[in-house]
């Protein structure tokens, strides 16, 4: 509430000092002229106005950091928010109130919640489950998926598209956006923008798919421009951005999943085909000088191995992906479900079969060799594995960790944790993070002030 009992307005983040009883009148002193009194009053008014402006700007500057803290679950209460921002409790309260007025978070002052230390319990903070969403989309060799994703990485709605991915990116991305627009229309939610995950390195700043090896798309397809055009044509507001699927999976896991709090996070994962990698350093995705960093799928792990699409042989991309697993296990892939799902089902239901177990060990050894080389080069403080690699870790964690330890320097000095990714559809969540980022940077400027 503000001073007159009304709720705070968007844009009002000034703080109000507690009132005190009026002091008794001072004893009579030397007379002051009217001009002097007016000048003193004007100076006091100007000082108060300047102080209010300073508090206002300080509060506005804290909106983005505050929203990111709530978005990533690092500020569950107003007391924690106050400490993390390094501001007064009054400023933190005003910042939280403004984010609530923007429809981004909820502030719960009911008793019985998490405490803020001694004294009365601190107000609880959470993302608004009925707030805006981002449109997220992912294209893979077996089709696509569109979703609406709210703050906190929550998937609100999703629509899979099991289609044959044609050689025309415009046709595929048109179908993706059409599915997403239908979800938006059904939900009635405000959309902050759109993000797309593709199984290819995405060159920056052009936004082109440099090597969509497992799609029939031409190399260098302008996927970002095509996606943005389709999003705009569908009447969807906000930016339309594109990134590599494993890069975006790593970003999502760092903010909401198994990578939280890691300073040097290495993510390696299979998609529906192939293997990708990503590195998050101090909270920021490391994409290299042109967006092409961590193409780990083309590390050689078996010099006499299978031919790779890149022209080499024995790359991780063809030695440790779902097709490699099915082939090593003596299974012929069928068309009913994706290669990734077939490989997962086989590993989960027939692991006792000697052929399946041997194939599992073979892929673990190939994956471990690749991870060991990456550890020696990058020195991460955590490794997370996604896709089929997550299932391989579950099947025989000790074997994988032993291979990495035997082949890397850290095996003689302690080790680095190797964990499974924890988010379902993490590439979709990461695609949504692209669209949410302008809001996280400047909530008020992006969403606009509302009365």
Question: How does this structure look, described?
Answer:
By secondary structure, this protein is of the alpha/beta class. Helix content is 41%, strand content 16%. The strands form four sheets. The protein has a five-stranded mixed beta sheet with strand order 5-4-3-6-9, with helices on both faces. A five-stranded mixed beta sheet has the order 12-11-10-13-14. The protein has a two-stranded antiparallel sheet with strand order 1-2. The longest helix is centred in the N-terminal third of the chain and has 28 residues, at 34-61. The two termini are 15 Å apart.
Summarize the helices and strands and which ones pair or pack.
Layout: H1 34-61, H2 63-71, H3 78-85, H4 89-101, E1 105-108, E2 124-127, E3 133-140, E4 143-149, E5 155-161, H5 169-187, E6 191-198, E7 202-203, E8 208-209, H6 223-233, E9 240-244, H7 245-256, E10 264-270, E11 275-281, E12 284-286, H8 316-319, H9 322-328, H10 339-349, H11 354-378, E13 382-386, H12 388-395, H13 397-407, E14 418-420, H14 426-441, H15 443-447
Parallel strand pairs: 3-6, 6-9, 10-13, 13-14
Antiparallel strand pairs: 1-2, 3-4, 4-5, 7-8, 10-11, 11-12
Helix pairs in contact: 1-4, 3-4, 5-6, 7-14, 9-10, 9-11, 10-12, 11-12, 11-13
